[in-house]
């Protein structure tokens, strides 16, 4: 999941070198944290959160084969 989120985020932002994706597992879920530059937050979130929702939907579809819930957190 980490690689998927990283590829999508780097395609959206103006500073792809500042994109950092970390992944950790807790009990029955995988938490993917996406960190971008403050100037790129709007590009990753989108109007009314549409791009963030789309990223989460793609990750959810990709994680359907696993038994774990995947949570995507976007931070700066």
Broad CATH class = Alpha Beta
Distance between the termini: 19 Å
CATH superfamily: K homology (KH) domain
Q: How many helices does DSSP assign? A: 3
Strand content: 25-35%
| Helical percentage | 25-40%
Task: Tell me which oligomeric state these chains represent.
Answer: single chain
What is the residue-averaged pLDDT? 93
CATH topology: GMP Synthetase, Chain A, domain 3
Structural class: alpha+beta
- Topology, number of strands: 3
**Cα radius of gyration in angstroms:** 12 Å
**Second-tier CATH architecture:** 2-Layer Sandwich
The helix/strand order is HEEHHE
Taken from the alpha-carbon principal axes, the silhouette is globular
Instruction: Give a quick account of the main beta sheet: strands, pairing sense, barrel closure.
Output: 3 strands, mixed
Can you list the strand order of the major beta sheet? Answer: 1-2-3
Brief overview, please?
With 76 residues, this protein is of the alpha+beta class. The chain has a single domain (2-75), classed as 2-Layer Sandwich (GMP Synthetase, Chain A, domain 3), CATH 3.30.300.20.
How would you explain this protein's 3D organization?
- The protein is of the alpha+beta class.
- The protein has a single domain (2-75), classed as GMP Synthetase, Chain A, domain 3 (2-Layer Sandwich).
- 38% of the residues lie in helices and 28% in strands.
- The chain has three helices and three strands.
- It has helices at residues 2-12, 41-45, 50-62; strands at residues 20-26, 29-35, 69-75.
- A three-stranded mixed sheet has the order 1-2-3.
- Strand 1 (20-26) and strand 2 (29-35) form a beta hairpin.
- The longest helix has 13 residues, at 50-62.
- It starts with a helix and ends with a strand.
- The mean pLDDT is 93.
